[in-house]
Design a protein that fits this description.
The chain has 23 helices and 13 strands. It is α/β, with parallel strands linked by helices. α4 crosses α23 and α6 runs parallel beside α19. It is globular. The relative contact order is 0.15.
Amino acid sequence: MRIHGHCRLDDAAIRAAMREGRAERLVDAGGSFVIAAGDVVVSSRSVAVAYHHGPATHGPGIADVAATLPFAWNHRAVADFLVFAHPLGDHTFHPGVQRLRPGTVSTMRGDRDGGGLDSRPAPEPVPADPDAASAVLALVDAVRGDAGSECGLSMSGGLDSRVLLAALLRLGHRPTLFVSGVPGSFDRVVASAIARRYGLPIVVTKVEGQTLLDGSRDGDAAGIGSLPLTNRAGLEHLRVAASGFGSPILLGMGGEYARSYYAARRGLSALRQAALPGRRATELITREFPVPLTSRELRMVHPALREALNPEAIRARVDSALRAQVSSVLRARVDSVLRARVGSVLRASSGSALDRADEFFLNQYALHKVSAELASVDGHVRWRAPFLDPGWVQAVRALPRRWKLGSRLHRYCVARLWPSLLEFPEAGTSGGTLARRPPSAYWLTGTRYPSGPHYLDQRMFRSGPLVDLVREHRARLEDLVEPELIDALAAEQTAQGRRPHLTFGLLALSLYRERVQQLARDHRAVS
């Protein structure tokens, strides 16, 4: 038996449940995990743990599963990765490998049935009450279960980590704060001030280009090759500073679910979006994600990838993913006594455009991208992601829309749990403190980025070893993208830094292929 992630039950209780045929009950055991025991695989309801399966094998790393198959590209998944930074649905970079869905119990099919995992969803839990105080209790329960007796916290100047710190302080913890930032950056300044106020130990790291370069060569990390370097950089400080930290480290990953990630930055515009019918969700999601290549550049990619990058094809895949969300909820078996209480679940999946976009964030962005970010630090830190705890997710899903605009729920949590944390600055505002309610500037002009330098030195993405790495790996994508296009993008990145996600996304695909090919050679050598 192998446990990927963390389960709050001990091994003896898990083995007993498996032995007695009660694997379905493990889905709600608490924690973020996938348990693999023989031919049975149990996935918790949390989307935090990436797990993949193919015809003959399954495991956390997509490259490990893909290496057992002839190499091939899933051009639709590659296109979605280049546009959104993650694939959609159950798709992965390989057409023969799928992402395991959370909240399922799966068994390995025999060769006669084509192999692979046969998954069945566990019964849906009873929806939460639509009450903000209940959401605070759910958060505290999630943090209590994740923190243990001692813990650390990845801290920034933002609201996600501040909410987690408020819950930790309320529970009596004194976490070590791990901070990433250059001198003068908002994250570093605010986190340092918080540490001084409460006398908390703090470890500050400035992530350098060499740090990212070293991490990109860590072939044993399951998330390597699934993320552009620009996305991996946000957790790289933990690989450097927290590798020897034996206690769990809480991360604010997924906190955007309670803040409507796809909503307009201006509050009045977000209110108008909240009135849009569900069928407009595709438009709302795709509006900020144009095709990243020009018409001339599209002629330099594989025809199947070019077709997958057609805007109509992208919208069709997003629409398909949204329809699948609705279907999964409508298929859930709920008896007549509970039927009146499932309004919040049905509203989230088939209600307004923002309701459906929130679920898209959880079931697409978090399922693929956040889990890949967490996988990239596996083996280095004992991460915990309380905002992806199913209890918290259920509580947030039940709340009316007003709680999810302007970070209102986050503000409420801080005020209820540790009010003095309101006394520290809020990013992008002129006031010196965090307001209890969304400020007028949010409604009228929208949230702004904090003043001062970015927490990462952006020059590392414009020149030096990281851009050189893009050029060095271009040959591995010859069947996907013409090498001349990669050279042009690297030159553009050096001169203008205009499309870092695209440039380093292609590098990630190169590193993924390198990893798959190395594993395939290892398999052949063993056999």
